[in-house]
């Protein structure tokens, strides 16, 4: 069974008693029954043992050592303020298919540009998804997921979540981010969800540095039930009046909650327009519940009143329009 502090593979070895002592200390600092591994893309080496002083270079090497259902933790260490020095570049899809295996970035914890960063290699841009979370009960925190644009005409998805009960905390999830080639292909997404009971806390989702001209949404929820977004910032920059920040399919179940979230369609930038609605939805087996949404750069929360979208509390629309209630008609 692998351990977070394993035998040294180069330059000598550690005695079993020393390893046992290190793991005992580690379990006291990091409260888990599982193994702990460290990754540092700048100074790490995949021939290392994955300890804090001897980190792996890639997430793939660390992930191969983890055990499903064991609450193993991988720490992705930032090393400088330069993206290239602190990014785990992917040559192929990173499939996160083990339950209760957690990934935590070690950095200052900003809302944008966390220096614990995952991105695609320029030579491996055509990935849909780049990161595929099929496992359950995993924690992702203090991470930046960034996907540059694939080749012309190729769909890309930055992060896809098909698993259940995963938790994203203070993560930036940004797709279609390369200005040098076609940055916007129909069907591309920053985030796509089909799993249930996933939670996003304090995350920034979307991107304002590249124009969305042909895609339809930053976030697609194609299936699943009871997904929750809390204190999240959704952002985009589009030239399409029909653009939707979030698309919710008919097959979604029970509820999708957006609590105290901000929705920003950047204005006063070349080609920017104000889309007619934040959420694209026809029907679902339940409701979209929004509490205290703030909406900027969109005409309304949905293009037309829709009983499947219910809003309670504050909102940033100048008209004070509450979707689900036709303003001036049945709001008395």
Description:
The chain has helices spanning 16-29, 59-65; strands at residues 36-39, 72-77, 87-90, 94-96, 101-106, 117-120, 131-133, 139-141, 144-146, 157-161, 167-169, 172-174, 189-193, 199-201, 204-206, 217-221, 225-230, 233-236, 244-248, 253-259, 262-265, 279-280, 285-291, 294-296, 309-312. Residues 1-11, 316-321 and 323-332 have low confidence and may be disordered. With 332 residues, the protein is mainly beta. The strands form three sheets. The chain has a ten-stranded parallel sheet with strand order 1-2-5-8-11-14-17-20-23-25, covered by helices on one side. The protein has an eight-stranded parallel sheet with strand order 3-6-9-12-15-18-21-24, with no helix packed on it. The protein has a domain at 117-312: Pectate Lyase C-like. The longest helix has 14 residues, at 16-29. The protein starts with 15 loop residues before the first helix and ends in a 20-residue tail after the last strand.
Topology of this structure?
Blueprint: H1 16-29, E1 36-39, H2 59-65, E2 72-77, E3 87-90, E4 94-96, E5 101-106, E6 117-120, E7 131-133, E8 139-141, E9 144-146, E10 157-161, E11 167-169, E12 172-174, E13 189-193, E14 199-201, E15 204-206, E16 217-221, E17 225-230, E18 233-236, E19 244-248, E20 253-259, E21 262-265, E22 279-280, E23 285-291, E24 294-296, E25 309-312
Parallel strand pairs: 1-2, 2-5, 3-6, 4-7, 5-8, 6-9, 7-10, 8-11, 9-12, 10-13, 11-14, 12-15, 13-16, 14-17, 15-18, 16-19, 17-20, 18-21, 19-22, 20-23, 21-24, 23-25
């Amino acid at each position: 069974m692998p351990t977070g502090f394993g035998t040294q593979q180069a330059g000598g070895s550690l005695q079993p008693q020393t390893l046992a002592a290190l793991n005992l200390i580690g379990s006291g600092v990091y409260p888990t029954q599982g193994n702990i591994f460290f990754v540092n893309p700048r100074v790490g080496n995949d021939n290392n043992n994955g300890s804090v002083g001897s980190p792996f270079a890639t997430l793939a090497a660390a992930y191969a050592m983890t055990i499903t259902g064991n609450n193993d933790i991988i720490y992705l260490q930032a090393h400088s303020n330069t993206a290239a020095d602190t990014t785990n570049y992917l040559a192929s899809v990173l499939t996160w298919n083990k339950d209760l295996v957690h990934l935590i970035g070690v950095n200052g914890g900003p809302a944008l540009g966390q220096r614990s960063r995952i991105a695609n290699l320029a030579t491996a841009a055509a990935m849909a998804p780049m990161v595929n979370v099929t496992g359950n009960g995993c924690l992702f925190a203090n991470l930046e997921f960034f996907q540059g644009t694939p080749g012309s005409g190729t769909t890309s998805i930055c992060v896809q979540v098909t698993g259940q009960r995963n938790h994203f905390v203070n993560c930036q999830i940004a797709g279609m981010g390369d200005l040098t080639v076609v940055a916007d292909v129909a069907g591309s997404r920053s985030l796509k969800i089909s799993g249930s009971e996933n939670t996003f806390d304090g995350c920034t989702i979307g991107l304002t540095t590249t124009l969305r001209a042909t895609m339809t949404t930053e976030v697609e929820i194609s299936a699943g039930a009871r997904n929750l977004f809390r204190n999240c910032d959704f952002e985009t920059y589009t030239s399409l009046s029909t653009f939707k920040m979030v698309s919710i399919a008919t097959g979604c179940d029970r509820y999708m909650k957006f609590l105290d979230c901000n929705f920003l369609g950047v204005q006063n930038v070349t080609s920017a327009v104000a889309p007619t609605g934040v959420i694209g939805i026809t029907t679902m087996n339940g409701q979209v519940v929004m509490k205290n949404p703030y909406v900027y750069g969109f005409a309304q929360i949905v293009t037309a009143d829709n009983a499947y979208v219910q809003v309670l509390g504050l909102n940033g629309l100048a008209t004070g329009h509450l979707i689900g209630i036709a303003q001036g008609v049945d709001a008395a």
